[in-house]
Amino acid sequence: MASQFQSRLVGTIVLVAIGVIILPDLLDGEKSHYKEEFASIPLKPEVSSQVETFVVLEPEEDSAALPPSPVEAQVAGEEVQTAETGQDSPEAKPEVETQVIEVVERNDYKDSAWIIQLMALKNEDNAHALVKDLQKRGYQAHAKQETNFTRVIIGPDVSKTKLEQQLLELEKITGSRGQLLKFKPLNP
């Protein structure tokens, strides 16, 4: 019995192997194979017999554009120094006096502008939030950063009476009494 079973088993394995190997080739039909065409690159390119030549031209000198040589510097009609030798001329060199004139800063408009220094806050974020709130309310508010604190300033404005009225309004809004100061444009 064992030999009959073994022969059936071997036959079944052979049939399955034939089915797996041969049947897909039969059922696929004709196969088309694609072959890419390669272009061969020559190892050494062919060089034409004619070689390009270029003519290098000499630069042209324009003597009319150059100043006459040697260049001389003159002060009040006297020859002072030549560029070629770099030495002083035998004639006496005139001394030129330089005067330093101090310009005094004049501010003819000392009483022309005023500001309100509302408060000085240590927290910069609070100062900027207050400035934004005042700007929304129509005030010309600014924050000036100092070393340890931030100043909240209203103005500048040329009308002192207008700022005095705003002092009262700002005291009601913020609860802080500001100071009316003269505006200094160079050091606000």
TrEMBL record:
<dbReference type="InterPro" id="IPR052521">
    <property type="entry name" value="Cell_div_SPOR-domain"/>
</dbReference>
<keyword id="KW-0131">Cell cycle</keyword>
<protein>
    <submittedName>
        <fullName>Cell division protein DedD</fullName>
    </submittedName>
</protein>
<keyword id="KW-0812">Transmembrane</keyword>
<dbReference type="InterPro" id="IPR036680">
    <property type="entry name" value="SPOR-like_sf"/>
</dbReference>
<feature type="transmembrane region" description="Helical">
    <location>
        <begin position="6"/>
        <end position="27"/>
    </location>
</feature>
<feature type="domain" description="SPOR">
    <location>
        <begin position="108"/>
        <end position="183"/>
    </location>
</feature>
<dbReference type="InterPro" id="IPR007730">
    <property type="entry name" value="SPOR-like_dom"/>
</dbReference>
<dbReference type="Pfam" id="PF05036">
    <property type="entry name" value="SPOR"/>
</dbReference>
<dbReference type="GO" id="GO:0051301">
    <property type="term" value="P:cell division"/>
</dbReference>
<keyword id="KW-0472">Membrane</keyword>
<keyword id="KW-0132">Cell division</keyword>
<keyword id="KW-1133">Transmembrane helix</keyword>
